[in-house]
Amino acid sequence: MKTKAFHLVSLGCAKNTVDSDSMAQLLINDGYHLTETPAQAKVLIVNTCGFIGPAREESLRVLQELAAEKRPGQILVAAGCLTQRYGSEVVKQVPGIDGILGTRRWMDIVDLVQRLRKGKHPEPVYHLPDAPTVGSDEAGALRVSIQGASAYIKIADGCRRPCAFCAIPLIKGTAVSRPVNVILDEARTLRDMGMHEIILIAQDTTDYGHDLGMKDGLAQLLEQLAKVVPEVDWLRILYAYPGYVTDRLIDVMASTPNIVPYLDMPLQHAHPEMLRRMRRPANIDWVYKTLEKMRRAMPDLALRTTFIVGYPGETEQEFQVLLDFVREVQFDRLGAFQFSFEPGTTSEPLGDPIPADVKQERWQRLMELQQGISLQKNQSLVGKTLSVLVEGQGRVENNGAASVSPEKLTLGRSYRDAPEIDGMVLIEGELPVGEMVPVRITGAMAYDLTGVVDTARTVISLDRRQAP
């Protein structure tokens, strides 16, 4: 065991990963170093996720595994969303936790570790301030997470939306935007590090700047980012909120070459009454008109959304409306969750009345429908050349699903694919990781594409920049 080593497990979404990487920066600045082996670490940290039931279960399982193997002299810190909301309950379920750090004060990780290492504590040390201070004190850490040649920048934290099913405002507090100049400085740093892609994330990116008195804050931020880091090939936006994708935002996306024509806008449902019960925007006409505007302005637009099935009171007729909507709109990417009962949310009085087998059956029908749509979308790309960001190598067995051999393959993403949640482009041969290469698409599967390097094309970032 090394006295200045730490082992950190990050669970949940990319927003959590940014917090984890920020904590790691602070520890490294204090003289610690990261180890992938828990037995070698003096400090064990789990940055938990508490968004829905399965995420809570995973967080508890990882904590229990580390606690069971904890050696004398090691300290275990449970941080993040789960502990912010359920700190004392987590301690009851995981004997061996030494410290509890809430998601709102990730920047205090060094102080908490120092306090724990000064001496034995009969009871776990709790650090769970009530005030949602995220964003006001960042302790000099970059609010980024780097993954290969891509990086996330967290532009805000917390959420002020009233969604009935969501516990995020209870965990994170209201929305707090980070200053524009700080985000621009971080983008410059990432550019200087050679990043090809910067991904802007928040609970709701389209709410950026509201608390700073900005109108169309996300559009303003993107305009400045594009000017400051024109060398970054892709600027990507995740997690837009229905009703807040403005005409100005669409114009900025359409007119700026390095803003990828990709938008993730979770809609959650398509039946107006269901959306009202969810306390979500229920103007479906706005959705149709806005998607039409976006596709007209950006013909190569890739749209991603997320839906919830099995929300309390969802009827078969309401679910059929959702299926018809998905069939009509033809999303490029789609994720779905089965409703998870969350105590303390405004949906709590509704309970969880829809049987698990009904939720599963609806989820399966929705995903089967989307699988066919995704396959058709991918098949339409065969013969075209896309710029692909190389992320690694691998092998696949030739099962007849695509025109690839069982030889070495390069794995990459096109602008149509956000990291971890979307598909991949499988390229024949080995290519340097971190490079942007032109790939001619030769085959399509439900979620992934296959292709070969197009030696006749120049390496550029978006096919809308490419010559015909």
In short:
The chain is α/β, with parallel strands linked by helices. The protein is built from twelve helices and 20 strands.
Description:
The protein has 12 helices and 20 strands. It is α/β, with parallel strands linked by helices. The strands form 4 sheets. It has a 7-stranded mixed β-sheet, with helices on both faces. 33% of the residues lie in helices and 23% in strands. The chain has helices at 14-29, 53-69, 81-93, 109-117, 168-172, 180-192, 217-228, 247-255, 272-278, 284-297, 316-329, 356-379; strands spanning 2-10, 33-34, 41-48, 75-80, 99-102, 125-127, 144-147, 150-154, 156-157, 176-177, 197-201, 234-237, 259-264, 302-309, 333-338, 385-395, 408-413, 425-428, 436-444, 449-453. Helix 6 packs parallel to helix 7 (217-228) and helix 7 packs parallel to helix 8. The chain folds into 3 domains: 2-127, 3-Layer(aba) Sandwich (Rossmann fold); 144-379, pyruvate-formate lyase- activating enzyme; 385-453, OB fold (Dihydrolipoamide Acetyltransferase, E2P). The relative contact order is 0.08.
